[in-house]
Write a structure and sequence with these properties.
By secondary structure, the chain is of the alpha+beta class. It has two domains: about 120 residues, 2-Layer Sandwich (D-amino Acid Aminotransferase, Chain A, domain 1), CATH 3.30.470.10; about 150 residues, D-amino Acid Aminotransferase, subunit A, domain 2 (D-amino Acid Aminotransferase, Chain A, domain 2, Alpha-Beta Barrel), CATH 3.20.10. It contains seven helices and 15 strands. α5 crosses α7. It is globular, with a radius of gyration of 19 Å. Bound molecules: pyridoxal-5'-phosphate (PLP). The site of pyridoxal-5'-phosphate has 14 residues, from α5 and β13.
Length: about 280
């Protein structure tokens, strides 16, 4: 049984109830985060809290809890749920209003929800334990505020299904200029002659916590890392391609649109990067 948190109470997930008039349900008017917790230790907690603040500020919603209170809540939640490897999902919506109206209602209490789910143990750079991805590609058709971690994910959902329907596990997206943006649920990196390259942050991409941690960790270790526009041609010709997200850490891409990448297996640069990430994941 999964224990969830809803508006101040810990309840079995299947008993948690919200109103159909909740603006998260009606408008996707809310922000979420996913934070890994390994053996009770949160990965990237401060960075997730900073991004939560940014997301809430972007939709003019006050953070209902302090970072300390969030931390206590997550500790209680992970302790009450089974498993050494959990993902903590949190969501704050604008709350419930009796009238459906696009305008923000006055006097609305935010709905605060969190629960945990099981995630894979991180592979720490062992290629035999890596989950490798075969990806499709598409033109990015989402909105122009992909920097906001909004619960309104229909654009991402439809892109993910485009990938799944073509037999892939994820889908890498390119803007109208054929420059890499991100994937349906991950950021993307390429490796070119040992240089690690990822697109710069802007309204076309989520500022991924794993992305930012990885850039800092690699630079801190003296690697050559570039944040710059990446063309479709460069992605297709890259030595290695990686996906990053909180629940995947760094995942090797082994095929794009049916074309093999890095010989169809996790690359050596990936193994070094993922094991370095594992070394610094609690301190970065
Ligand atoms: C669209 C998108 N980009 C990137 C990411 C990676 O972000 P993070 O590393 O913070 O999990 C996610 C994660 O859910 C995502 O949904």
């Amino acid at each position: 049984m999964t224990i969830a948190y809803l508006n101040g109470e810990f309840v079995p997930l299947e008993e948690a109830r919200i109103s159909p008039m909740d603006r998260g349900f009606l408008f996707g008017d809310g922000i979420y985060e996913v934070i890994p917790s390994y053996n009770g230790q949160l990965v990237g907690f401060k960075r997730h809290m900073q991004r939560l603040d940014q997301g809430l500020a972007a939709i003019q919603l006050e953070n209902p809890l302090t970072a300390d209170k969030w931390h206590t809540l997550f500790s209680k939640l992970t302790a009450q749920n089974a498993g050494d490897y959990q993902g903590v999902y949190l969501q704050v919506t604008r709350g419930t209003s009796p009238v459906r109206n696009h305008r923000f209602p006055v006097d609305c209490q935010p709905t605060v929800f969190a629960y945990t789910f099981t995630v894979n143990a991180p592979c720490n750079g062992d290629p035999d334990k890596a989950t490798c991805y075969q990806v499709a590609t598409a033109t990015d058709r989402r909105w122009k505020r992909c920097d906001i971690k909004s619960v309104a994910l229909l654009g991402n959902v439809l892109h993910m299904m485009e990938g799944v329907d073509s037999g892939a596990d994820e889908i890498i997206l390119f803007n109208e200029q054929e420059e890499l943006t991100e994937a349906a649920a991950c950021n993307v990196f390429i490796v070119q002659n040992k240089t690690v390259i990822t697109p710069p942050l802007d309204i076309e991409k989520l500022p991924g916590v794993t992305r930012n941690m990885l850039v800092d960790i690699l630079r801190g270790d003296g690697w050559s890392v570039e944040e710059r526009a990446v063309s479709r041609t460069e992605v297709m010709a890259a030595d290695e391609v990686w996906l990053t997200s909180s629940t995947k850490e760094i995942a090797p891409v082994i095929a794009i649109d049916g074309h093999s990448v890095s010989g169809g297996k996790a690359g050596a640069v990936w193994a070094a990067a993922q094991s370095l990430f594992a070394h610094h994941r609690y301190s970065a």
